[in-house]
Specification:
The complex is a heterodimer of chains A (294) and B (390).
Chain A: H1 8-33, H2 42-56, H3 61-86, H4 94-116, E1 132-135, E2 138-141, H5 142-164, H6 166-176, H7 178-183, H8 188-210, H9 220-234, H10 243-263, H11 271-282
Antiparallel strand pairs in A: 1-2
Helix pairs in contact in A: 1-5, 1-8, 1-9, 1-10, 2-3, 2-4, 2-8, 2-9, 3-8, 5-6, 9-10
Chain B: H1 2-23, E1 33-39, H2 46-62, E2 66-67, E3 70-78, H3 83-96, E4 101-104, H4 108-121, E5 125-127, E6 140-142, H5 147-161, E7 166-171, H6 174-189, E8 202-204, H7 213-222, E9 226-229, H8 233-243, E10 253-256, H9 263-268, E11 276-279, H10 288-298, H11 307-324, H12 332-340, E12 353-354, E13 361-373, E14 376-388
Parallel strand pairs in B: 1-3, 1-4, 4-5, 5-6, 7-8, 7-9, 9-10, 10-11
Antiparallel strand pairs in B: 2-3, 11-13, 12-13, 13-14
The chains are: A mainly alpha (294), B alpha/beta (390).
C-alpha cells in the first residue's frame, strides 16, 4: 500500500480535531487577549454544551439545531455570570482570576456529575450523516466531514467579525490599548461582559457540535481546558494573539494528536507536550508572534 | 467543602456507633451469619458495582434470605473508584461489622489493597470480578476468571476462522496487558500470525486515548484480516463507534466480552452490530439455572443480566453450599475449608468448579455476537469455545 495514502485519513481527522480545538480556544484567546481574563472555567462551559447535546440529541437535524440554540444560550449566560463574578477583581490580577474561575470549574464539574451521573453519555448525530463516507477509497465518519465544513465556516466568520465590523474594531482596540478605549467612552465593564459572553458562546458552540468527537463525561472539562491552553500558548502567549495564530496552533495540536500518533505510536503519550516544549524553546512567542490585520 | 466532609464524617461515625450499640444485644436469631459485600456503588465502575450487588441480593431473595440454612445479614459497602475508598470501607466491614466472609470488589487495585486487611482478620474472600496476582490464595476465591483466560480461550477459533494475520490492540495498563497477552500467546502458539509491526501488541495510552482513527489507519496499512481487542467502559464506546465508521469497518472484530457487555452496548447502539466477543457467560445460554436466573433478574431490571451480576450470584451460590457444609456453627475458618472441598457448582453459565491451584473457575467460554434480539441489541451465543483453567 502507498506510504502517503495510509496517512490521509489521520491527516484529515487532524483537521477536524484541530478545528474543534480552534473554536474552543478562540473563546479563551478572546477573554485572555481582550479582557485580560484567565478563565479556567472555559472547559466547563464546553462540557455544558456537550451535555446539552447529549440530552437533546435524538438523531434528527431539528434536535441538533435545538441543542445548539439551548447550549449556546446556556453557555453565553454562563460567560455573562462569570463576568459578574469577576467584576470586583482588578484587570491583570491573574492569580485571583485563576483561583476564582478554577473554583467555579470545580463546583460546576460536581454539579454536572450530580445532574448527569458519573458516566460518559452517548451523543447521537443526525441519522443522515451517521455513516461512513467514501473518500478516495477510504472511509471516514460522515459527521466529522460535516463538522469540518461548519467549523471552517465559523473560523472564516470569526475572522470577518474581527477585521471588518465595529465590534471587531473595538476588540482590536481593546487589545492594543485598553486605557485609551476607556477614555474614548467605552465602559471596560461592558467590554468584559461582551467578551466573556461571546467567549462562552464559542465554548458552547464547540461543546454542542463537538460532543460526538469529545463527548460529555466527568473528564471532559479538564481535557478541553488543557488542550485549549496548549493552543493558546502555541498561538502566541503574550496575550496579543490572533485568529490566524490560534487557527494554526489548533491545527498543529490536532495533527499532532492524530497524524503524529499514526506516524509514531510509541511516542503517543508525550508527543503533544514534547512538541509544545520544542516550539517554546525555539520561539518563545508561539508560532506566530503577532498577526496584524491586512 | 472540606468542612462539610468533616461534618459528614462525624455524622457517619455517630450513626455507626449508634448502630453498633443497638446491634450488641439482639445479635439476630441464633445462627445468623454476616456477609460483607464491597462493590463500586459510585464513580467510574458504578454500573458494574450495582450489577454485582444486585446479583448477590437476587440469590438471597430467591433462596429465602438464607445460605446453607443460616439467615444472612448482608452488609453492603461502597468500594468507590479504588483503594483510597475501598480499603477504609473493607476495614469497616471487617473491624466494626465483623463480617465472617467478604465478597464483591470490582477493581484489581481495590482487591490488592484490601487483601492485607483480609489476611490479618483471617476471613475468606469470594471475589466476583477482578483478580490481581496474590502471593497466597489460601483464603482467596474467585467466581470470575483470570485475565489471561479470556483471550486464550478464543485464540484457536480465530486461528481457524480468519484467513490471514490478526491485529492486536488494547489499553496500556495492567489489565489490558494481561488480556492481550492471553490472546497473543495462545494465538501464536496455535500457529497464527500477528499483523502488528514486529509482532508486538499495540497499546494505546489509557485513559487519554479518545480518538482511535490514527490506529485504524495503521491497522488498514498492516493488511490484517481481523482485529482482536480488549476495551471496557468509555474507551469501549469510543472504539466501537469509531470502528464502525472507519476504513476498517468491514474487518471482523473479535474482542474480550467486556467490549460489548452491559451498559456500554446501549451507548454503542447499532455501531456494535456484528462484533464477536468471548466471555464466560451470555444471557441466552440454554440451561435450567440460567433460565430461572434471567427470569428472576428481569423482574427488577430492563436489561438482561451481565457477567458481573452472574459472577456475584455465583458467589452467593458458593457460600450457600459452603456454609451448609461448614457444620452447625460455621466460622470463617470452617467456611473457607468447606469452599476448598466443593465439587461442581451448577451456575447460569453452566457447571464449573474451583481450580485447586489458582482458586478461580475451571469453566467453559462462549463466542457471542451482537445481534438484534427483539427490539434491543444483545450478545447471542454463536458457539462454545474451550474450557479453560487448571
Amino acid at each position: 500500500m502507498n506510504r502517503v495514502d495510509a496517512y490521509l485519513i489521520p491527516a484529515l481527522d487532524g483537521v477536524a480535531y484541530g478545528l474543534l480545538l480552534f473554536v474552543v480556544a478562540a473563546g479563551l484567546v478572546l477573554s485572555f487577549g481582550v479582557a485580560g481574563i484567565l478563565n479556567l472555567a472555559h472547559g466547563t462551559l464546553y462540557a455544558i454544551g456537550a451535555y446539552v447535546a447529549a440530552t437533546l440529541s435524538d438523531g434528527s437535524w431539528l434536535a441538533l439545531l435545538l441543542a445548539l440554540v439551548a447550549g449556546v444560550a446556556a453557555t453565553t449566560a454562563g460567560g455573562a455570570a462569570l463576568s459578574g463574578m469577576l467584576a470586583p477583581v482588578p484587570r491583570g490580577d491573574h492569580l485571583t482570576q485563576a483561583l476564582l474561575t478554577f473554583g467555579v470549574a470545580l463546583a460546576g464539574g460536581s454539579v454536572l456529575v450530580m445532574a448527569f451521573g458519573a458516566e460518559n453519555l452517548p451523543v447521537r448525530v443526525p441519522a443522515t450523516v451517521d455513516r461512513p463516507v467514501d473518500l478516495a477509497g477510504h472511509a471516514y465518519a460522515g459527521y466529522r466531514l460535516v463538522f469540518i465544513a461548519v467549523a471552517a465556516a465559523l473560523a472564516l466568520a470569526l475572522h470577518a467579525v474581527v477585521t471588518r465590523t465595529r465590534a471587531g474594531m473595538l476588540v482590536r482596540a481593546a487589545l492594543d490599548d485598553p486605557d485609551m478605549v476607556a477614555c474614548l467612552g467605552v465602559s471596560p465593564a461592558r467590554v468584559r461582559l461582551g467578551v466573556l459572553a461571546a467567549s462562552g458562546a464559542l465554548a458552547g458552540t464547540a461543546g454542542v457540535l463537538g460532543a460526538p468527537i469529545i463527548g460529555p463525561g466527568p473528564g471532559t472539562a479538564a481535557t478541553v481546558l488543557l488542550l485549549s491552553l496548549v493552543v493558546v500558548v502555541l498561538g502566541g502567549h503574550s496575550g496579543r494573539s490572533s485568529v490566524a495564530g490560534t487557527l494554526l496552533a489548533a491545527l498543529a495540536v490536532g495533527e499532532i494528536q492524530t497524524l503524529g500518533v499514526a506516524l509514531a505510536p510509541t511516542a503517543a503519550p508525550f508527543l503533544l507536550f514534547a512538541a509544545m516544549a520544542a516550539v517554546l524553546a525555539a520561539r518563545s512567542h508561539g508560532l506566530i508572534r503577532r498577526w496584524s490585520p491586512a | 467543602m472540606y468542612r462539610s466532609k468533616v461534618l459528614a464524617g462525624l455524622l457517619a461515625l455517630g450513626v455507626t456507633v449508634a448502630a453498633a450499640g443497638c446491634g450488641g444485644e439482639p445479635e439476630g436469631s441464633p445462627g445468623t451469619i454476616k456477609v460483607g459485600l464491597l462493590a463500586s456503588l459510585s464513580g467510574t465502575y458504578q454500573a458494574i458495582g450495582t450489577d454485582m450487588r444486585d446479583g448477590f441480593q437476587l440469590y438471597l431473595r430467591t433462596h429465602g434470605g438464607k445460605l446453607g440454612g443460616h439467615p444472612i445479614e448482608l452488609v453492603v459497602a461502597d468500594e468507590g473508584d479504588g483503594p483510597p475508598t475501598a480499603v477504609p470501607a473493607a476495614t469497616k466491614l471487617v473491624k466494626q461489622d465483623r463480617v465472617s466472609v467478604l465478597t464483591g470488589i470490582v477493581g484489581g487495585g481495590s482487591a490488592a489493597g484490601v487483601y492485607p486487611v483480609l489476611t490479618e482478620a483471617k476471613i475468606p474472600f469470594i471475589g466476583a470480578n477482578a483478580r490481581p496476582a496474590f502471593k497466597d490464595v489460601s483464603r482467596v476465591w474467585h467466581t470470575s476468571y483470570l485475565s489471561q483466560e479470556t483471550g486464550a480461550s478464543v485464540a484457536q477459533y480465530v486461528r481457524d476462522h480468519v484467513d490471514g494475520s490478526v491485529y492486536a490492540i488494547g489499553p496500556d495498563y495492567q489489565g489490558g496487558h494481561d488480556q492481550l497477552k492471553g490472546f497473543t500467546e495462545a494465538f501464536t502458539k496455535a500457529g497464527g500470525t500477528l499483523a502488528n509491526a514486529d509482532g508486538k501488541t499495540r497499546f494505546t495510552p489509557f485513559p487519554t486515548t479518545t480518538n482511535f482513527t490514527p490506529y485504524f489507519a495503521q491497522i488498514k496499512a498492516s493488511g490484517a484480516k481481523a482485529v482482536y481487542t480488549f476495551y471496557a467502559g468509555t474507551a469501549a464506546i469510543d472504539f466501537v463507534k469509531q470502528y464502525s465508521q472507519s476504513e476498517i469497518k468491514d474487518l471482523p472484530l473479535y474482542a474480550a466480552g467486556f467490549l460489548t457487555e452491559g451498559g456500554v452496548l446501549n451507548a454503542q447502539g447499532p455501531a456494535a452490530r456484528g462484533i464477536f466477543s468471548v466471555l464466560n457467560y451470555s444471557p441466552d445460554l440454554d440451561n435450567a439455572e440460567n433460565r430461572s436466573f434471567v427470569a428472576a433478574w428481569k423482574e427488577n431490571h430492563d436489561a438482561p443480566p451481565t457477567t458481573y451480576a452472574m459472577a456475584s450470584y455465583d458467589a452467593a451460590a458458593v457460600l450457600d453450599k459452603a456454609i451448609g457444609a461448614a457444620g452447625d456453627n460455621p466460622t470463617p475458618e470452617s467456611i473457607n475449608r468447606a469452599i476448598g472441598q466443593l465439587g461442581q457448582i451448577d451456575s447460569p453459565r453452566g457447571a464449573w468448579q474451583f481450580s485447586k491451584s489458582t482458586h478461580s473457575p475451571v469453566q467453559k467460554w462462549y463466542l457471542r455476537q451482537v445481534r438484534q434480539d427483539g427490539r434491543a441489541l444483545s450478545n447471542m451465543v454463536v458457539t462454545d469455545l474451550a474450557t479453560v483453567g487448571k
